[in-house]
Amino acid sequence: LADTIGLGLTATSLIMTGILIAALVLQFTRKCYVPWAYWPAVVLISIVGTLVTDSLVDSFGVRLQTATIAFSVALAATFAVWYASERTLSIHTIFTTRREIFYWLAILLTFALGAAAGDLVAESFDMDYLTSGLLFGGVIALIALAYWLLSLDGILAFWLAYILTRPLGASFGDL
Q1: Is the pLDDT of residue 124 over 90?
Q2: Structural domain range at position 146
Q3: Is the whole model's pTM more than 0.90, yes or no?
Q4: Exposure pattern of 40-75 as b/e (b: 16+ CB <10 Å)?
Q5: Sign of torsion over alpha carbons 100, 101, 106, 111
Q6: Is residue 1 assigned to a domain?
């Protein structure tokens, strides 16, 4: 939309955010997991999370280091408030509106953070996209090994791996 069709980053961001809001409204009307409502929301939130980072960096001149730190802090704060109010971060216990709000906010921030961190590692540290992708994949593999062999908490392992899937995918996508 931004490049091929020529809408630009701002218009694309606004359009995709509007579609995401509609998808989330639909998702919030479901009382349980419904794939046809859930997965479009996931795809759209991944796009919007990436567009948030791209807009900050490309349109407003925010440095990738700054964006990475800011999204890390915002995500940590989201997890802290979520845990303080709900006593869990488990995706298997999302059965209230408040927990679902925390969940979708965390997902949005993971995609924004992942876009910033992925670009930071690949571009700012003069690392090619293949090496960057292998690095993120390797860290995910280490998390999986820590879960299986060292009894790393499953919820922590899930969220750490989930956060790293965005820069992993972005690195291979950019490659």
Answers
A1: no
A2: 8-174
A3: yes
A4: bbeebbbbbbbbbbbbbbeeeeeebeebbebbeebb
A5: positive
A6: no
